[in-house]
Write a structure and sequence with these properties.
By secondary structure, chain A is mostly beta strands. Chain A has no helices and 9 strands. Classes of the chains: A mainly beta (108), B mainly beta (119).
Chain lengths: 108, 119
């Protein structure tokens, strides 16, 4: 089964840039979605189709996909960005969605 | 704006069947725009996609759950449902119902319903 690899944690100071990676085979042929989940809340879609933002998501959130790695970039990080972040792709070989294990973003 | 709300028993005994319903407001589940789905999250763990259903009735299930899971629609009530058979403690989780526009990801989520499997 398709496996997505994320770092368990990323730490960044306020105002700096956070980069959260998601690795998997043949990524260049897949679209990656990203979700933000704060404690006790449902996840929120922050990036779809590798780099598109749903309405209401700040421009500080951006995404890219190159080779075997997708990256969620959060610029000018704020305390309110502290959350778990999950990447997701569609595995077309067996028609199902796959999530990465999640990355906890800590704002120092 | 779509709104989704899960409902269910909260507690299920091992070996029984877990049943959850998602009520959709602000749109029709007969819409060709959306896939209606379920995602769960065991306590303290990550997200696991369970399955989805499209307005045609076509279903997609996670390979690890196929055979135990059934997702269905009730267009008269604008609801869709999840059944998980032969549950064990490993099925204890917060269950979310979602709506996704094809490959654009799950843009709409319910608030989540905690299901505990225990005797």
């Amino acid at each position: 089964s398709f496996v997505l690899t994320q770092p368990p944690s990323v730490s960044v100071a306020p105002g700096e840039t956070a980069r959260i990676t998601c690795g998997g085979p043949n990524f260049e042929s897949k679209s990656v979605n990203w979700y933000q989940q704060k404690p006790g809340q449902a996840p929120v879609l922050v990036i779809y189709y590798d780099s598109d933002r749903p309405s209401g998501i700040p421009e500080r959130f951006s995404g890219s996909n190159s080779g075997n790695t997708a990256t969620l970039t959060i610029s000018r990080v704020e305390a309110g960005d502290e959350a778990d972040y999950y990447c997701q792709v569609w595995d077309s070989t067996s028609d199902h969605w796959v999530f990465g294990g999640g990355t906890k973003l800590t704002v120092l | 704006q779509l709104q989704l709300q899960e409902s269910g028993p909260g507690l299920v005994k091992p070996s029984e069947t877990l049943s959850l319903t998602c009520t959709v407001a602000g749109g029709s589940i007969r819409s060709s725009l959306y896939y209606w789905g379920w995602i769960r999250q065991p306590p303290g763990k990550g997200l696991e996609w369970i399955g989805s259903i499209y307005e045609t009735g076509t279903t997609y299930y996670h390979p690890s759950l196929k055979g135990r899971v059934t997702i269905s629609m009730d267009t008269s009530k604008n609801q869709f449902s999840l059944k998980v058979a032969s549950v064990t403690a490993a099925d204890t989780a917060v269950y979310y119902c979602t709506a996704s526009e094809a490959a654009q990801g799950h843009g709409y989520w319910g608030q989540g319903a905690l299901l505990i499997v225990s005797s």
